Amino acid sequence: MRPAHFSLDGQGALYEQLARVLKRAILEGRFGGGRLPATRTLAKMLGLSRNTVLSAYDLLSAEQLATARGRSGTHIAQSARSTPRGRPRSAPASPSRYAARARQLPPMTLGPRREQPRYDLHYGEPITDPQLFHSWRRKLAAAALRAGPRYPDPSGFLPLRRAIAEHLGRRRGIVCTEDEVLIVGGTQQAVTLAARVVLDEGDVVVIEDPHYQNVAQALVAHGGRIVSVRTDQSGLVTSELAKHHPRLICVTPSHQFPAGSVLSLERRFELLHIAASQSSWILEDDYDSEFQYPGRPLGALRSMDLSDRVIYVGTFSKTLFPSLRLGYIVCPSSLRDDLRIAKRLDDLGSPAIEQAALASFMRSGQFEKYLRKSVAELRQRRNVLLEGLRRHAGDRVEIHDAQAGVHVVVWFRRLNYPQLDRLIEIGIRQGLGLYPMHPNYRVRPVRPGLLLGYAGLSAASLEAAAELFGRCLDLMDQEAGSGNDRKAAARRI
């Protein structure tokens, strides 16, 4: 072989790089005989030390691709010499139907931008609270001793499940026991487990329009036949459900994501009736119901479910922080064992130390104390953003004030979609991260809008962001005025 065939890849120690090159050459049958070059010869040819070559040969021998025979040199193993040579010429194996569907999914638009603008109004950012992380660090240290080194219970750490059941009874009106609670890795795993348990490929799944992209994509990849049903100021339009005969209905009744409406009592009753009469399942995503600013959070849909058709999903991503990756399902009795099996087969259980720390955090009362503090802080940030938008954007936008959650929605009165793209581009250049609403719809709304998250910025930063947003709109107005002037001049000519 020529020296050009021995180009190293720069990854790891020299002898490891050389061993990889030689291994590939052996597997491809590029050595004429059954013997590797003499170590001194190869070292001189490549400009390496002989020890490097010897170490590479030792590594090949350890992998049984070569055998050292003293003075006769190092020989390629007989089994390696008799292996069919060359790269396979057949086409690569086709992926599973799941993988093929997943490849066709559109790109996500909810993630933060790579450029990290100074004022990023990205939805989903947590409140940054140094005191929480100091407390959490201490909880983790103590929890490591309680959780122990063994595999966790796939259903979840018993004290945590008990604490969640008690919390749901106080805050969400859900009466359940720890046996009905299943600990999962956040809302996303809850959706995938529910899909495995209740859906076959081709089953009809109703999602809201607009909707949470991650949930919709998980269901599409699973093979669900997605049907979107519109929402209005009273939430999901339930009168349009029965004709679809869905197997699963995915809803965010307490605070519709992302439009912000609340499912009315009348529609809650109708939704539950349809599910019971058509043997449908309801997946209730209660993602941020703790953040209701006028007062006590609304009761969960699950608390009204007499037919046991609601798969209730909660998460700590908004109430604590997303990197915790812990959530829970309150399982219908007929699905409890199936969901537990699906969880065990997926990952053998969520991390036990984090579960033990969270259980201690909840049972000590610190969680509810932190929730009260977070609600007060978020209420202030929300008010600052809303006031800033009214002052700096004026009548150019229509603000949808849901009085809940960690985001607001603004709709533009005069901009079209190309102008929205231009506004977002101007915002990036000015250091302002803006995120469009329409990717969350299956049927694009007539007017463009923005989804503005406010949890990740301080009140002072939100005031600055609102002012900057107004300046970006001013630049848009100037551009539109210049364009109109040019058109008027052209008409005069």
Describe this structure in words.
By secondary structure, this protein is α/β, with parallel strands linked by helices. It folds into 3 domains: 79 residues, Arc Repressor Mutant, subunit A (Orthogonal Bundle); 198 residues, Aspartate Aminotransferase, domain 2; 122 residues, Aspartate Aminotransferase, domain 1 (Alpha-Beta Complex). The chain is 43% helix and 13% strand. It has 15 helices and 15 strands. The chain has an 8-stranded mixed sheet, sandwiched between helices. It has a 3-stranded antiparallel sheet with strand order 12-13-15, with helices on one face. A hairpin with a 6-residue loop joins strand 12 and strand 13. Helix 8 packs parallel to helix 9 and helix 8 crosses helix 11. The chain starts with 13 loop residues before the first helix and ends with a helix. 39% of the residues are buried.
Spell out the blueprint of helices and strands.
Elements: H1 14-27, H2 39-46, H3 50-62, E1 66-68, E2 74-76, H4 78-81, H5 97-103, E3 119-120, H6 130-147, H7 158-171, E4 181-184, H8 187-198, E5 204-209, H9 213-222, E6 225-232, E7 235-236, E8 248-251, H10 265-278, E9 281-285, E10 310-315, E11 327-330, H11 336-347, H12 352-363, H13 366-393, E12 397-400, E13 407-412, H14 417-430, E14 432-433, E15 449-453, H15 459-492
Parallel strand pairs: 3-14, 5-6, 5-8, 8-9, 9-10
Antiparallel strand pairs: 1-2, 4-11, 6-7, 10-11, 12-13, 13-15
Helix pairs in contact: 1-3, 2-3, 5-9, 6-12, 7-12, 8-9, 8-11, 13-15, 14-15
